[in-house]
Sequence to fold (173 residues):
Amino acid sequence: MFQGFSFTGNSLIGIDTKGTVYESMVGSTFRGELGQYFTPRKIVEFMVDLLNPQRNDYILDPACGSGGFLIYAMRKVANQIRLQQKNLPQHKIEKLIQDFVNQNIFGIDLSPRMVRAARMNMIMHGDGWSGIQRWHGLKIQSQPELIKIAGKLTLIFSNPPFAGFETEEEILK
Fold:
């Protein structure tokens, strides 16, 4: 029955099968309990296409949720690398892509469950190691790992959460 479908890439009609299945499986868990929603795929695609990430960009989502912006940015840059380096052997192309993902893509979320969901989503989309960390997205300047790259960040994608309220005095200042 599934013979005509590909689960390893995009289908002919542009549907990300793995991502769609993953988000539908975990979506209701986060919507109900945590008041969190996945950014609609068309909005993610529009925003990433608009900012057009490149190989040398350092990308951050300080409220990454399920990692949608990071996944689409990763896929977009991976396609660019494949087109630009088509004369290289496949294993070298994949190494360039993996290096980009490991060194240039970062995601933060406050919720431990969303961090796990984002990491799994990134892994399902070809990222063997994910730069997703559990931190407060408004306290980036106090995170040692991000201080190292703070001056290098070139793109920030985010759909900030609207489910909670910030009460910490220092952040509100």
The chain is about 45% helix and 10% strand. The first helix runs from residue 17 to 34. The mean pLDDT is 80.
